[in-house]
Amino acid sequence: MPVIKVENLYKQYQLGQVSSGTLSHDFNRWLHKIRGKEDPYEKITGLNNREQTTDSKYVWALEDINFQINQGEILGIIGRNGAGKSTLLKILSKVTAPTKGQIKIRGRIASLLEVGTGFHPELTGRENIFLNGAILGMTKTEIKSKFDEIVAFSGVEKYIDTPVKRYSSGMYVRLAFAVAAHLEPEILVIDEVLAVGDADFQKKCLGKMKDVSSEGRTVLFVSHNMAAVKELCNVGLFLQNGQVNSMGSMQEIIQNYVTQNLATKLVAESAIDKLKFPLAQIVKSWISMQDNRNVISVDTDFKIAFEIEIHESDVELNLSMTIESALGQTVFNTLSESFITKRGNKTAVCIIPKDLLNNGLFFVTIVLTRDRSTAIQLIQEVLTFEVLDNRENEAWFGDISHHLIRPKLNWVI
């Protein structure tokens, strides 16, 4: 049974302005509306694409959004920055109104959209718990019955009678999530704010959201952490430039997102801007393989190389390289041998053996360090490459498509 149904949803913003910017625009809109005519500014509204310039003063943050969510489903909403994810959640949470379209919601919604949402800074943690419960329509007795559980989950017992304006962002999010998840709303809406919390708390939150879903309640979750979305959600919605690109199983939607947004960014060679690090700096990186392309066969060795420009002699340096998957998961980290510098340019090469990485897209992050402890230069996602297996009749037991590595190891039988 659908608990949320969105039909022909649009949200328009005027760039650089609040409201329409002028009284004449507001009056003109009102005049067209009472005459039953189309909004005169819809015709000149541009697409929500931050990579393109436009002469229009208006933009569709959301355009013709249609979908529905059934009771008990966990919907993961993904997309690049500026795709309209947070705007959609704000409309569903009634923080802002749509320009046009319909939203049908069955049940109470508890939202955690950004640090600070829903709390009064001058009130204590205890007072804010009761305030949020009252907003959700709960009685004082119902809130009291959940109070100890909320405080225990948040881990802020010591500060529960302190005004929340003195909380750190992590403490704020801990208490806000605990309140939203434990006051038994039918629909729980969570934006990227969980990234503020530490790893242990994020794990607790994911577990709690699973529990909420198992109780028949519905969860909407926006995150750039593809691994977390994949683990938690069973339904996915991919927003692109304010429009629905696709909706379906979370696995399919993530694959679609990765293919469309990351495959176009394969970088097998990168010239790095010289920022004039006084000691040394990486000035170039590249991937070397047999066919000189950035698509690598599973059964082929390849090399990742870095050119280092050294400005000072007799210093001990190292390179620390991390390989990450398209979902943001760390595959492995490797540290080079130490070397003593001499002025000039030096090339460092790391050989990645065949039959190690599985099919997929991978990013390279590199750190130039001094004495294995002090970072001199950090370059994230400096290179991108894809690994493919074109071999036929390779026998594997079970589904290995979600594995990051599949090394061929020596067996003694």
Features:
single chain; 413 residues; alpha/beta; 6-stranded mixed sheet; 8 helices; 19 strands
In short:
With about 425 residues, the protein is an alpha/beta fold.
Question: Can you walk through the features of this model?
Answer:
α3 (125-135) runs parallel beside α5, α4 (140-154) crosses α5 and α5 (169-182) runs parallel beside α6 (199-214). The longest helix has 16 residues, at 199-214. The chain is α/β, with parallel strands linked by helices and 413 residues long. The chain has helices spanning 23-34, 85-92, 125-135, 140-154, 169-182, 199-214, 226-232, 250-261, and strands spanning 2-14, 58-70, 74-78, 100-105, 109-112, 187-190, 218-222, 235-240, 243-249, 269-271, 280-288, 295-297, 302-310, 316-325, 330-335, 339-340, 344-352, 360-370, 374-388. The model has no long low-confidence stretch (mean pLDDT 81). It is built from eight helices and 19 strands.
